[in-house]
Amino acid sequence: MKFLIIIKQFYVDLRKQRLRTFLTTFGIVWGTVATVFLSAFGEGLYRQAETSFKGMGDALVIVWPGNTAKPYKGLPKGRWIRFVDEDAQLLKREIPYITMASTEYNGSGPMTKGRKNVTQDINGVSPEYGIIRNIIPEPGGRFINQNDFEYRKRVVVLGTKVRDEIFGQGVNPVGQYITLKGAPFLVIGVMKQKIQNSSYNGRDERRVFIPSSTFKTIFKRNYPNNMVYQVSNPEYTLFIQKKVYEVLGRKYSFDPEDKEALGIWDTNETVKEMKPFFEGLKIFLAIIGVFTLMVGGIGTANIMFVVVKERTKEIGLKMAMGATRGYVMAQIICESIFIAAIGGLVGFAIAKGFEKLFPIFKLEEYIGTPVVAFKSAVITVSIIGLLGLMAGYFPARRAAHLNPVEALKL
């Protein structure tokens, strides 16, 4: 019954102070929108950056041969290391945490189709390379398979930009022939468009892929430029790196502690390094939103002080008739919490609306899509509740300590 009376009184006050209540509630609404949306923006930006970076490959490590910087077992320093195709399988066999591995050859040459003639980056790879590097073919096509590799077939997979330049945008060239370095190649697939903001030999969309066995024949090359491998658990990447130095050090006779003998880019470590930066950005954006929300809380406190002042006689009459201080405080605090709750609910609805409508602007590739994370929602709700409580407590405390006799004289 008391709760219904509080609700009724809140409604009466709301009607009396429509403009003031609206402006106060708007402060909570705007603060909630700012807090939720800025946190969602930070979360979306982080997820987009992570997705874009992993577009190059998930749990990917690239290894380049280097130049020894230390003498080892009577051998001088300054020796160049040169990989061979068997090294990829050697790493898989010796290091269980490596699930897939492939050597990679890089070259360039003329590519023609009819009157179209361009100089194109050409990569010789094994079948596992497509999985390691997230080279997913469009429907109707495929990536290089073991049969292509073993029989040195002249087949090619095109990046999307290469396809568009040679055949036209959106054309399916699977089954057609192009000429690479004067030899005919059958197009077996086109890479599906992917988000990628990192690379080491250029974006995949501007590359073409052929079996490394075919590449070696056409380019007359026996030594790959680098190797790529994928790990089963990114938490063990440093341990795996150490094992790579040990395995290849035994084969090529260099000191496993000689970091110049190999060049390793572990993208898993890069992702780990990115996370603190984006966590800091999310916290910074959230703080801005919270300060905005606090302004709304101060507005709520102000209106509750006004309510107490205007209802001084009413409060004095209630206390004279036996109302306890606890009852008076509860009424004021509940009204304050109602205002905060209404503003919070409207603010959440607006923020969720922004989240749903944001893809219309087509900015996902640059700043991602805002994501209202559960943790951010819980924190925002807690802050709104605390603000509502604090905004009502001090006016309520003042009202509860009024002298009934003096209050009735005012």
Major sheet attributes: 6 strands, mixed, barrel
Low-confidence segments = none
**Global outline:** elongated
Number of strands: 9
Number of spatially distinct domains: 2
Oligomer: single chain
Give the distance, in angstroms, between the N- and C-terminal Cα atoms. 29 Å
Order of helices and strands: HHEHEEHHEHEEEHEHEHHHHHH
Strand order of the largest sheet: 2-3-7-4-6-5
Mean pLDDT: 84
**Rounded Rg:** 33 Å
Structural class of the helices, strands and pairings?
A: alpha+beta
Provide a count of the helices. Answer: 14
The helicity comes to 40-55%
Strand content bin: 15-25%
Q: How would you characterize this protein structure?
A:
With 410 residues, this protein is α+β, with helices and mostly antiparallel strands. The protein has two domains: 2-53 and 272-409, no CATH class; 98-231, no CATH class. Helices cover 55% and strands 15% of the residues. It has helices at residues 2-16, 18-54, 86-94, 128-132, 146-150, 160-166, 212-219, 237-252, 267-310, 312-320, 325-357, 364-367, 374-400, 404-409; strands spanning 60-65, 98-113, 116-125, 155-158, 177-180, 183-190, 208-211, 226-231, 262-266. It has a six-stranded mixed barrel. A hairpin with a 2-residue loop joins strand 5 (177-180) and strand 6 (183-190).
